[in-house]
Design a protein that fits this description.
mainly alpha
Length: about 270
C-alpha cells in the first residue's frame, strides 16, 4: 500500500517561524537521543566516549606486541594514531547517523517533526562526541609521548574536520536509503570493516603499486589519512594526496545526502 506524501511543515508559515520550530525540534531530539544512548548518568556517556578509543588502543597494542616498525617516523603509536583517529571519527559518525532515522522513527508521529530534524540532532551529537574523542587522544599522546609535535596544526585540525564531514555524508546517505530498502543498511555496516583495511591506516599509499593506488584513490578516507600524516610529519610529502578530489567528493556526498533526505522526509 502506497502512502501519500505528507507535508512536513504548515504551508503558510514564514522562514523565521519554520527555523525557530526546526531549532526547538532539533533540541528536543538531541535531548532524547542523549538519554536513550547514554542514560541518565555519567557512566553511559563515558562508555560511549571510551568505545571509539578502543579501536586505537587495540591497533597500537597489537602492533606493539608484534614489534612492527612504522613506515613513517620512529613511533608506531603516533603513526597508527594518525590513521586510526580519522577512521574512528568517520566510523562512529557514519554508524550513528546511519541509524538515526530508524531508531527515532516514532518521533515522526509528532506534529512538526521530520527526518531532517532527526538527522540534524544526531549530527550535532556526533560532532561533539568526535571533538571529545580527539581531545582525549591528543591529551593522552601529549602526556605519554612528552608532547605532541604536530608540524602543521591547522592542517591537522582540517583533516579531522574532513573525517567528520565524510562520516556525516555517508551516514546520511545510507541512513536515508535504508528507509527505502534495508539492504542499504547492510552495505553501510559492511563499509566499516572494508575501510579499516583499504584506507591506509597501516600503510602509506605511495608505497603501493600503481594498480592498488588507482583503487585507493577513489576512497576519500585514504586521502584524509594521508592529509593528516602530511600535517603531522614535517618530513613527509605525499604524491598520492589530491585535495581537489577530496573536497569535491565530500561536497558531493553532503549534497547527495541532503537531496535524498529531502525525498525521504515526504514518505516516512
Amino acid at each position: 500500500m502506497t502512502h501519500a506524501p505528507r507535508p512536513t511543515r504548515f504551508a503558510g508559515e514564514s522562514w523565521r517561524t519554520a527555523s525557530a520550530m526546526h531549532a526547538r525540534v532539533v533540541g528536543a531530539v538531541i535531548m532524547r537521543d542523549l538519554q536513550t544512548r547514554f542514560g541518565a548518568g555519567y557512566f553511559g556517556f563515558l562508555l560511549g566516549l571510551l568505545m571509539p578509543l578502543g579501536h586505537l588502543g587495540i591497533a597500537i597494542g597489537v602492533n606493539f606486541l608484534i614489534g612492527r616498525k612504522p613506515p613513517l617516523g620512529t613511533d608506531i603509536a603516533i603513526f597508527l594514531t594518525t590513521g586510526v583517529l580519522p577512521f574512528v571519527i568517520w566510523l562512529y559518525a557514519h554508524r550513528q547517523i546511519m541509524m538515526a532515522l530508524l531508531q527515532n522513527k516514532p518521533l515522526l508521529y509528532f506534529p512538526g517533526v521530520d527526518a531532517f530534524d532527526i538527522f540534524c540532532g544526531r549530527v550535532c551529537i556526533e560532532i561533539v562526541n568526535a571533538t571529545l574523542v580527539v581531545a582525549v587522544v591528543l591529551l593522552t599522546i601529549n602526556y605519554t609521548r612528552n608532547g605532541v609535535e604536530i608540524s602543521d596544526t591547522p592542517k591537522f585540525i582540517y583533516g579531522l574536520i574532513f573525517s567528520i564531514i565524510f562520516g556525516i555524508g555517508t551516514g546520511i546517505i545510507f541512513g536515508a536509503l535504508a528507509n527505502f530498502n534495508i539492504i542499504a543498511l547492510m552495505f553501510g555496516n559492511i563499509l566499516g570493516p572494508l575501510m579499516w583495511v583499504i584506507s591506509g591506516i597501516f600503510f602509506l599509499p605511495d608505497e603501493m603499486s600503481d594498480i592498488v593506488r588507482d583503487y585507493l584513490f577513489l576512497n576519500p578516507l585514504t586521502h584524509i589519512i594521508d592529509y593528516l600524516r602530511v600535517a603531522y610529519y614535517s618530513e613527509y610529502s605525499s604524491s598520492f594526496l589530491n585535495m581537489p578530489y577530496l573536497l569535491s567528493a565530500l561536497a558531493i556526498l553532503i549534497v547527495l545526502g541532503i537531496t535524498i533526505v529531502c525525498v525521504v522526509r515526504r514518505y516516512v
